[in-house]
Amino acid sequence: MKILVLEDNERLSNVINQALIAEGYNVDCFFDGDDALDALGNGYSCFILDINVPNLDGISILEYIRYNHSTTPVIIISSNHDLEKIQKSYEKGCDDYLKKPFYILELVQKVKKLCVVKKQYLKFDEEYKYDFINHKLFKNNLEIELTKKEILFLGLFSSNLHHVATYDELEEYVWEGEETTLVNIRSMIKRLRKKLPDDRIVIVKGMGYSLNKNVSLC
User: Fold this and answer.
1) Over the stretch 188-212, which tens digit does the pLDDT of each residue have?
2) Within 10 Å of residue 213's Cβ, how many Cβ atoms?
3) pTM, whole model, 2 decimals?
4) Taking CA 193 as the corner, what is the angle to CA 191 and CA 198, rounded to the nearest 5 degrees?
5) Domains located in the chain, CATH noted
């Protein structure tokens, strides 16, 4: 995840930079509003903006971000305790506001809470991926038709990728509580396997089914 930080106090900027890097984020720091504006389109997942910076202020940049229909989280940081400025920041669409001085851990926690990249796909290989938000399977961007039970089966792995889907869980979730047989479950799995790359659904003996370790979320 890449984060843009606009802060003209070099010492504070360095502290923020180091703290976010330690948490695994990629960080681009800017000291000037015009430079930050030029970089907005570089694929950031979060913006941390000071209000009072040279040239273009943080609230103006916030306006530009929201004007372009971006829902990317924006955290405003400022030594300005003026209630009007705080209110204006929220009116323009900031997600949170931190008054200086603040504990750096507080900023990091806000970033962790707000700036989350949502996973949308099960990636089976370079050709196959399943969009579990829109419930569609694609091979090279061409849709492969799925049955309702196949969709429900893949949905079991959207939040817990490599867990084992037990036979009881399949009956409860995929068959929606209706009693079924192992023959029916195996038949459904067999049909779904034909729509996926080889060996992506694996049998866990005596328990149920899981996804191959090569399957990933993206």
Assistant:
1) 999 999 999 999 999 999 899 999 9
2) 9
3) 0.59
4) 150
5) 2-114 (3.40.50.2300), 121-217 (1.10.10.10)
